[in-house]
């Protein structure tokens, strides 16, 4: 639908990743104005290269873990003439990102407090600071919605055996933050209800991003649909949550996981 989001100005964090960049492409195609942000660096550069010429696209460098940057972000965007009515807490540090490519992945017993806290800082505290700033600068001034991003590993535990001999593992702090973010959604839903703001959580399933055939087979057996998701299949649900069609939903967790959580 090319005009599904025509009245929406969407602010998205961590937008240079596999899902974020898909959301940006689909949101622009659905008629939204998109205010993208990410850490400074190659992911952001690729996004700006793809959409920089589009008058409905803007990009800001933003580290969601830096309080001074988050506190200033909406005022900066608004001063530039963009008033976001949809905010998407998408940025996250995954296990792979935390460790860096090629580094050995620690098991639970060897997980450092430093790595645990780094993950909490981005995934939870970052999301909290964005929501708090939205409360200060947007909520109550005009109707708005916040979408928090969880995971199929928020309210369901991983089957650890599927990661045996894989170069990546499921990371404990990741699951803890993804469960926690839905707590933030539930808390805010009632808190904002009388001020014309809604908040929901999306919980994407396993998204294909070049995984080996063996990993796809192992995870596929745990999913009713029998396979990993394409990024566009997660974007379909995300666009609905951003649109006016989800206006009567608040405080909900939407699983888009091919049935992983439904067995
Ligand atoms: N891909 C999946 O299978 C999957 C499944 C469930 C949930 N998710 C969630 O969906 C969201 C997007 O995931 P993705 O697959 O695109 O991941 P990704 O790793 O490809 O992208 C994450 C993005 O967040 C950015 N980021 C990291 N730290 C940041 C910080 N401090 N400030 C700002 N940006 C920061 C990264 O630069 C990156 O562009 C995440 O919240 C992730 O947890 C993904």
TrEMBL record:
<protein>
    <submittedName>
        <fullName>NAD(P)-dependent dehydrogenase, short-chain alcohol dehydrogenase family</fullName>
    </submittedName>
</protein>
<keyword id="KW-0560">Oxidoreductase</keyword>
<comment type="similarity">
    <text>Belongs to the short-chain dehydrogenases/reductases (SDR) family.</text>
</comment>
<dbReference type="GO" id="GO:0016616">
    <property type="term" value="F:oxidoreductase activity, acting on the CH-OH group of donors, NAD or NADP as acceptor"/>
</dbReference>
<dbReference type="InterPro" id="IPR036291">
    <property type="entry name" value="NAD(P)-bd_dom_sf"/>
</dbReference>
<dbReference type="InterPro" id="IPR002347">
    <property type="entry name" value="SDR_fam"/>
</dbReference>
<dbReference type="Pfam" id="PF13561">
    <property type="entry name" value="adh_short_C2"/>
</dbReference>
